[in-house]
TrEMBL record:
Entries under SUPFAM superfamilies matching the protein: FMN-linked oxidoreductases
UniProt name for this protein: Glutamate synthase domain-containing protein 2
Entry keywords, A to Z: Membrane, Transmembrane, Transmembrane helix
Keyword Disulfide bond: no
Gene Ontology BP, a term: glutamate biosynthetic process
Family: Belongs to the glutamate synthase family.
Residue span(s) of domain Glutamate synthase: 134-466
Species per Swiss-Prot/TrEMBL record: Marinomonas alcarazii
Amino acid sequence: MDFLSSLATVTIHWGALLFVFLLFVAAVSVVVMYWVDTHQTSHTIRRNYPVIGRFRYIFEHMGEFFRQYFFAMDREERPFDRAERSWAYRAAKNVDSTIAFGSTRSLETPGDIFFLNCAFPTLEEDAAQPKEICIGEYTAKKPYRTRSVVNISGMSFGALSKPAVQALSRGARKAGIWMNTGEGGLSPYHLEGGCDIVFQIGTAKYGVRNNEGHLDDTKLASLAEHQNVRMFEIKMSQGAKPGKGGMLPGAKVTEEIAHTRGIPVGEDSISPNGHVDIKSIDDLLNMVHHVRQVTSKPVGFKMVVGDLTFFETLCELIHKKGIEYCPDFITIDSSDGGTGAAPQPLMDYVGMHLRESLPTVVNIVTSYGLRRYIKIIASGKLIVPGKAAWALSAGADFVVTARGFLFSLGCIQALQCNKNTCPTGITTHNPDLQQGLVAAEKSERVANYAAELFHGIGMIAHSCGVKEPRELNRSHVRIIENQSRSQLFSHANPLPNVRPEYINMTALKEEAISKEERLQ
């Protein structure tokens, strides 16, 4: 008993001393901050309201976190609201993704869409698996055949951490989908999962560049020898930063990343805002032809749509140059696409939204009689089944998403992708933060998310009365005009017929037949 009494006395004594000491430190800190604030000239608030004014910056920093968890409603947040993120999390964890009582999505917002259910929906026993699509069927010596509908969009090693790339690669293999490398080059971690890979050639030619930063055919051919590398995508522009190259802070450029990209260690990696060797549509088609000649595999390009005359001129030139110069696919990115780092003026104000650009490009390619040769890939916030199903109904052959798969890895939308401080270990190269991301565990969630996204698209398709997702078309969708009226998508934006002058397309058909015969 005496021991406990002595211990209590000592604890109280030292506790009191510690409290007095902390009070003294706090008082000195307040005095120092007061002196600093009243004598500095950079911040008006701190100068006029010394010490107290500092709370503004604390609240400003913490505000985005408080809004996310306490104040924002389920459908209010940007860039992804809580309802969409929650669906992605549940899908990745393979838990119940149903909801109760009623939808929290506004069902009467002008411009939004809804699908038309059929009186006789497709029964489960009548449902069909997606048909196989062949990319590069008429042009490439080694075309790519796949049944996948949903795939992983471009995210670079460097922007993403090692375990994140490993998890995506393994998960893509389990799901039977492809993974785009992004412009950061091909790392061993892309390959170790064994999934199909689309290699992206960015403006800086990372991974296939020579010492001057130009395309190195030897490195390109060497990459094409990997059986898993199925296609090559030339990145012309990106939705979140059209007209701006990739930006990777020097803090993220480790020795391994520098080796993969072919750049100096620890220096900011900023890509040119355009290809130095592609300055016209003719240059682009020549590059498509050249890369395909070197690799023997399908080649296409990615861009966020701006000037629509680009596609008119592109299609006209393909007819003049021949099918050998035709891109095998075009990836249409949306102006609301994502990235790790981009200037806000470009992210907020430049480029066309996928809702308008996708059907427009499909229409142009169709009217020139090139739809069978050019596959269309849609990208841009397509993380939930409804949005992905809309893209297919608008005419896309494939849907790709990056941020949807980031959510499957555990992304919490902390908006710190550009700071190397990602709390989930996805976009940081800090080993302490990376240890929380276990690739083996997260790869299962990647596969689950892909499967659930496809399943959700399938449910919409079956409700509309078609057997598989790619049978969705514009007649299955209505666009809301006001609270009491909507318009059929196929009436608002009908798919055009092939222009009379391009119906026969003798030269293209002869070349296509000749190519088919050579491949057989």
